[in-house]
Amino acid sequence: MRLLHTSDWHLGQTFFGESRAAEHEAFLQTLVSFCVSESPDVLLLCGDVFDTMNPNAEAEERWYGFLASLAERAPHVRLQVIAGNHDSPARLAAPSALVSRMSKNGMEIHARAAFLAESSEAECEETPFRRLDPSVHLRRLRGTSGVEVCLALVPYLRPSDVPTAYGVEGSKPLQEFIAALYLALADDAKRLFPGMPLVLTGHLFAAGGLASEHSERKIQRGNLEALPVEALAERCSYFALGHLHRAQALGPEGRVRYCGSPIPLSFSEADYAHQVLRVDIAAQGSAVVTPLPLPRARRLVRLPRFHAPPSEVLAACDALNVDAGELAPFVEARVALESPQPGLRQDIERRLLARGARLIQYSAVRDALVSPSEKTADRERPSSLADFSALEIFERCYKAEFGQLPAPSLQATFLECADLASSLSVDGVQKA
Questions:
Q1: Alpha-carbon gap, residue 278 to 287, rounded angstroms
Q2: pTM for the whole thing?
Q3: Whose CB has fewer CB within 10 Å in the chain, the N or C terminal residue?
Q4: Which helix (H) or strand (E) holds 72?
Q5: DSSP β-ladder status, 248-250 and 238-242
């Protein structure tokens, strides 16, 4: 059985006001080509198809265009999609009836978690009272090689899916509930499909995962308790994850994988190796993972790598090489100023335009030159409001008012309110 694993497309993203449409289109064309050349049985898309819960028409048109192209050029591929925290379940699932008829083997979109009906009294018990419905979340698939695999498809678990007894508002750890859901589903798979290799999917923050600065939104009540993966890795042949934009392997034998985003979504991701993962699963359950590198349609460039005096920044701009036919690189100029220098930004912008590049962000440190220790740390220094996450802004305002950072429980409550506000912006009329 051969799978292709991808996630975190973030269709519709704008980068400091600039569209990423050309980059996304290049990626989607490459992905369809992979589906033709690699002949996978299944394409797994592990969440965050869109960048916002209310994507614009261009992003939806690109998504529907990809579905049509995949059905036309690779009808043998079975597409399985789970929702991420950036996706609106209703909007993502809207074309499900049409999508299921577009592929020879059928395509499915899993936007919401479905639970077995249980008595309300069970919520007071010591063990989680909810179990995922195996008839909805488990699929038995046969590859062209004859190998059969059980696929467990679990979308992002939203606050309404979590019992009040768990997390910061309850007495039990949130990770206990999430882990129990997966372990119970793995037990269902073993019972219903004995001896069959199991592939788990999810859109979540796994313990030990490395996040990107100023990019991924914290999920599941503030990531206060990331999901431990060791016990789950022992139950499956492969665990396909979405949410973290850096490609990485976790757990025993690297069975737990983030494939990463297909394009850099912030300057902190400029050096990432973007890829799609090809996963070949044998009948006995062993998995061989092969990265399929993605070409970079547009470069994100920091000039220079660290904040430097104006003369060094201007020299770096003049030395930037842009190939003919290359999409204009997006550039962050990183300047260290000992005193204000009017007109410097305009000078940098002119020089970059002459080289065929575009200035997207101007990051200036005005207090002093960056120290060697800061260079060694290699951290992104926010220079404008757009560089901060909502949580970071909340933390700074709270500290300015009360002289200390908010407690973890208050941070988690803030993030839940932010997620609720985001969902209300999608269905505001009917929810109001």
A1: 10
A2: 0.83
A3: C
A4: helix 57-73
A5: unpaired
